[in-house]
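Chapter summary example: a protein plus iron/sulfur cluster.
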Amino acid sequence: MKILSQTPPPSGEGSTSDRLRDCALLILGHGSTENPDSSQPSWDHAETIAKSGRFGSVHCAFWKEEPSFRQIWPMIEEREIYVVPNFISEGYFTRQVLPRELELTGHTTSRDGRTVHYCDPVGVHPAMTGLLIKRAKEILDSSVRPEDTSLIIVGHGTDLNTHSTEAITAQVEAIRASGEPFARVLDAYMEEPPYIADWRTLTDSPHVVVVPFFISDALHSYQDIPVLLGIETEPTAAASQREVFRRNPYRFGERTLFYSSAIGTDPSLAEVIVDQVRYFDEHYRS
Amino acid sequence: MTLAGELESLLPAGTSLVFGQLRLCRRDDGSFEACHLDDAEKRESLEPIPSAPALRELAKFDAAGEYRPLKTAPTLRGGWITRCDEAAEFLRRLDAIYPGVFATWIAYAAGRHHPTSLRRTLDRQTGMYRRAGTITDGMARRLIRELCHIGCLRTITWPIHDDDPVARATASPGTLPMICTEACTLAVNAARTLAKEARAAGD
Ligand code: SF4
């Protein structure tokens, strides 16, 4: 399944890719001082993109890990830099924290001999809808029909960033509109209604598949959501967390539940990051 | 000069440098090697780690398996060695262990990267850290003593206030300095905790 847009490359594509080889790509993540898995997807996607040789260099920087947003500029030697926030939605981080810490003043900032392009976050890319659908279908057993399955996209809710809730409802609408034959598609949250803990009453289909709309399998999707779903009795330790995803499906009487890892861990996110650069060039580059 | 070029010239063939808890060596054939300082005498028996991602994974946890949120904490584990021929690749590997520390030093030494005072860092915080800037200078000094001096190998180059005098860091022979040019996330978080405690004590 091709995830990204099928539109043909714009004319002059060859020269664009030549130009990008002289540019750096900087991926921004949240990171964590407590959870070792939080920054891993950003590093994994950076590694994939670096291997493709499309940029002069590929870097990551984090709010809560090193290199920090404040340490990153001396590490980058290219004069033109594309910055892509590996965040799930527009909001407090992408509009306030990241521009402030990186000293960005708009779509493009020129300072100290550098030109920095600030792209949209990965979570708002139109390909995310297709990725959520792909992820949901991948983890269902081949014997399970989507028509007998409800798809729940789960988010945090009630945090600083109300846009994250809007981002999830927008995805749910888009999946419904896509004509995919799921019995129902709905949103649910950890800390506001509809609560993910109520998944049994929110849905009535024989099967339910839950995909977390998070960037990484950090505390929420490894530890908190499995407890809310009833597939773990208490938060598991970091090292054993991957087990949560290997034990699918979980049986609850006549019903089965399939639980996915966070959407941000999907390897296709590397392409989404690169596509945010292409989108920037087409829409914001003056 | 590129960062890789700087590294090559600071580490000519046949020499070595101490960098935090690392011993960096340039062999006579020009290739590079890094291992833990404690392991410098037993290089032949160490586990070779061949890539930056593998080193990043190694640097994530201490010997007891605890997560290391601060990469310049004095808790890097040993038992490994990494070798490569190219300076650019060697720098990538050093950055996997001590992210950005080499580049920070080069930019600082060249006068291209300037320290940010603690007040400036704390005062621009928002959200859950918005009150971190309410700590007193005494609390700031306590933070430096208890977090930075005990838990981190970097030398602080930032003042508490913009116009406080601060000594310029220099490289002592045989070492690559590890400097801190701005309070890190752990320091901002510690300031928030101290501010909270002070408010609770005042209530
Ligand atoms: S503020 Fe600087 S010196 Fe202090 S712990 Fe953080 S990195 Fe180390």
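Key point: Chain B has two domains: 3-99, 109-202.
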